[in-house]
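Before any further analysis, backbone shapes were mapped to integers, which produced the following:

***
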Amino acid sequence: MNRTVIFLIFLFVVLSMSSMPSLSKGSADVSTSDKLSGASTSEKIDILAEEIERLKNQELFGGELGSQRGFGAAASKVYNTSKGLAIGGYGEIVNKAYIEGDKYDQSDAYRGILYVGYKFDDEWTLNTEVEFEHADESYLEFAYIDYAPKATNGKLGARAGLLLLPLGIINEKHEPTLFHGVYRPWTENKIIPTTSRENGVGIFGQLGEKLEYKLYYVTSLKYPGTTKQGGGMRDFRGKGSQTVSNEMATIGRLEYQLTPNMMIGGSWYEGKVNPSSGVTGFEVNDPHTSVQMLSVFTKGEVMDIEYVFLYAENNFSHVQRLNNTLTSAKHLKFGKKQVGYYGEVAHDLGPYIGTSWYVAPFYRYEYLNFHDEVEASAERNIDYRTKYHTTGISVKPIYNIVLKADYTRYLDGARDGDYRALNLGIGYIF
């Protein structure tokens, strides 16, 4: 049994033992009503204060009060519909201005998204995401059927289709109102990476009020053929498009509400890399590279300071086999191990400046190393070790709209690709 499996089993046992029996999130309103019934005035004040804090934290962790099944509010719209059609979405428009570096400034209609779902009844649900990128590209981001039997009371459901992989923090909750910075954290963009999706099946549920779990069985990653330096794992995504399914992968995720203001979690992925069209140099039965992806993370608020921390690592076997399939020496050669982590803090200044707007300066530090470990015959390439310093501000005049500005400094190991950029963006959800 490998170390990631052991870790997840251990985490699951610990969290299960520490979770307290309680009603599910879907029963929160009934629970509050029951508590108020027959309570004294002082008790009612305490109960309502507790409920306000609960709602505040649903917003912090779920992106909005309607967040369901690990997704943001916009993607959860169908779950909050009594029956029939539900439509939501989000979008981002960004501008990058390079302060230094030999790059052109760029304005981009980055994303425009439609969530279209249909609730057949209280147990069966269809949910889809159609994505338009850069104003001229279109993708099916996810499309799946949920079956959540009433008898399980939220403890067990089944899912099948094109699935967003439950990895890290951003992959499932990637709407622009849910993260600071014009661009998603690079660790979750390149090491995990966003937005990873594959065809498959899975189960999900909630144990008590605090512990959520997911376990998926999906088509595994694909050999990329060509991978740009710094591209990390993004070119490995099959995206459900006529992917070879000789190899399958197993994915697990646990997320635990440790306190009303703190979430901790972990995710794990393991599978062999599938061949893909246009990639030559091996036979179907040759030994393929296997990949283990592990992430641990926490998000919350301490003394009104919002924070996020995530650590991720990828481990490869038969890495030389993988490198032999890459078409050029200019392309990123993979080490045995990749690591990335980031830490972020933010604070809402709205209450101090007399506005109901959310006005939060933030700072994020990231470190990525695609050659954390290499084969004995290979040498580490310091160009594959990068750092990001991002300082900026997020402003929400209403919850559905966010205005963003940040200053990013990028440093690579050799210091020959450094740049500084000022990024501006506007995002929305509905």
Residues 97 and 105 are 5 Å apart (CA to CA). The two ends are 44 Å apart (CA to CA). The helical segments are 3-18, 28-36, 41-62, 186-191, 319-325.
